[in-house]
Amino acid sequence: MEIKVAKFGGSSVAGAEQFKKVREIVLGDPARRVVVSSAAGKRFAEDHKLTDLLYLCHAHLTYGVSCADILHTIEQRFIEIRDSLGLAYEVERDLAALRGRLSRDMSVDELVSRGEYFTSRLLAEYLGYAFVDAADDVFFGPDGQVDKERTYAAVAAALEAHGRILIPGFYGRLPNGRIKVMSRGGSDITGALAAAAVDAAIYENWTDVSGILMADPRIVKNPSPIPSITFAELRELAFMGASVLHEDSIQPVKEKGIPLNIRNTNRPQDPGTLILERIEEEQRSERFITGIAGRKNFTILTVSKRNMHQSATLRSALEILDRYHVPVEHITLGLDSFSLVAASAALGDGLYDVIADIRKTCRPDDLQTEDGIALVASVGRHMPSRPGVSGRLFAALGAAGVNIRTIAQGADELSITVGVANEQFETAIRVLYDGFTG
Ligand code: ASP
Question: Which of 7, 13, 49, 189 to probe ligand 1 with, by most ligand atoms within 8 A of CB?
Answer without folding.
Answer: 49
